[in-house]
Amino acid sequence: MKPAPRSEQAARGGARVPLERKLERLGVRSREDLVLHLPLRYEDETTLTPIAQARDGRPVLVEAEVLRAEVVYRPRRQLIAHCRAQEHELTLRFFNFYPSQVKQLQSAIDNKLLLRAYGEVRGGWFGAEMAHPRYRLARAGEPLADTLTPVYPTTEGLSQAVLRRLVLEALDAASLDDTLPDTLRERYGLIGLREGVHLLHRPPPGTDLGALVERSHPAWRRVKFDELLAQQLSMRMAYRQRSAQHAPALPGAGPLLRTFRERLPFRLTGAQTRVIGELLGDLARPHPMQRLLQGDVGSGKTIVAAIACLAAVDAGSQAAVMAPTEILAEQHYRKFSAWLAPLGVRIVWLHGALKKAEKRAAIEEIASGRACISIGTHALFQEGVRFVRLALVVIDEQHRFGVAQRLSLRSKARSDGDEEPPHQLMMSATPIPRTLSMSYYADLDVSTIDELPPGRRPVTTKLVSDARRAEVIERIREACADGQQVYWVCPVIEPAQAGARLARGAARELRAALETHASLTRELPELRIGLVHGRLPAAEKTVAMEDFAAGRCQVLVATTVIEVGVDVPGATLMVIEHAERFGLAQLHQLRGRVGRGARASACILLYAAPLTPAARARLKVIYEHADGFEIARRDLLQRGPGELLGERQSGVPMLRFADLERDGELIRDAQQAAAEFLQSDPTRARSHVERWFAARHEYTSA
Ligand code: ADP
Ligand code: MG
Question: How many domains does the chain contain in total?
């Protein structure tokens, strides 16, 4: 963008941050971006409203004559302009004002200028009043605006007036050629881009304001379609680029896989069989797989991953499994060992409790190729681990990892000069709502396990006020007397936040866990009560989990370290303390820790009154729904895509105008159109993507 003239910058009071930087904060880096910086809402300054007709709650434009302007100090410093409008008194009140405003109002009196103020008019003690209205001075009879006034999303230090002028100047200079081919435009009944964008910036009188506000107006429809199309195109381009690379083909019909499929520990569900087919189909091709395997908690993703790993081993390659927590990595190690070690598959577990020499030995086994499958957390794969021929990377609970972390493991395969990227299998128990997977995950292939293994009993969910904690303790006593096991999950203290606050939050979380452990030990002296939390040394964590898994302790007090993946079928009761502090996905994951065995299970959500409306809404969803997809859909509704995407959003173009919930149909249209567009005119498709996303992202790379 052209730098603003010096004088202009100086005139904008306090402009220590250059204009370019402020615009950048809005995602605006070029003139074209300015043109596509669309209004949030509109103000109607096309008509004057008589004071008598101004109703509370609706902003209007009024015209008044200034009688007197003064600064008063009661009760706090304020600028007051006493005015008269159609024989009514009108007081304007400003708490934040510049000294120059007093002079300006004074000059209005001297020069017989009128004041046009936009805002809400309220009936006050001394007649009609407006608090800090937007206003300007005008000559009597000066024409009013002939279009609605757009209000743009802005940032600190950039006034609406300046931004509006910049946008409208850019609009007048822009050619706004249509990147969309006519055939597509006509098929989807869209208006021209130029027409649409002009209307949004300068809606003529008579424009359906309701449709503008609701963003259902044809102009909005066109803009949203273009944005969604750009997203689909960019994801599709990233996908194509990746699938053009070479990867080792893993045929999936080798002896190990065949033997294992004959000796499976249980009968696979239909859904597991189907997704295994999809996976093996991908792996057999000489291009890197990019597949997301989603399936609700307990749907049996682990065995699917093990089978994929065997395909790699059969082909003489290596596989790596990355888990977000040590507990989960260990559990995978145990399962994989039980299943695959009898076949002679060498599995290495990298963990924090390894002694120096042991660790060196493990790394050496991986580097020499003797280890076929390595399992660990992200931290462990970072330090000096080199593979000889890594062909498959499995990332469990992928949403817990950042893009950079996933990339770091993928890049391992290249460390020995081998340019071929490995196949990637990402797994997630947080199902992605359909609209989200159609948009933000459009660059991945998705397999879904939509069936639970047979014999699962639904978990009964109870909401219990923490005033009734004593009853819950009794319930635990009875359950344990009956040979059942119980998880007690301690509250999250603070949502994940960077830096010191996170550390403090973790410390308080730990203290809460220690206190709960102490009090439960006191209250339930006949039971063995274990404790596991993030600060525990790896070896002690292992012992605590083993004791619980083997039934040596009946109650496990835990922080959310057990949130994902932990599988102890004997546990039938879960108590979540301060359930109101947890997110929906977390509650669903936690509840999924029980109901894994043959006995009926329950989840008690202890909450502290009073609940905020948001907390109440979350608890209601988790109480009423057991299906992870439905819960994820509601989570998306309550929180928006940004948070659900987590780290992924850093690599993916975010949508500014389209809405996943309301624009489902447009997403489908855009998806269809993208395939055709890319086929028929790739160059033009690329310029379409650049128009919408050039400033905002680097193409998806993870
Ligand atoms: P998740 O999808 O949450 O990772 P797991 O892979 O941990 O689920 O599986 C949950 C439990 O169900 C494990 O104990 C696993 O051994 C068992 N399981 C998986 N598939 C089946 C099946 N087809 N029949 C019976 N049990 C199964
Ligand atoms: Mg799992």
Answer: 4
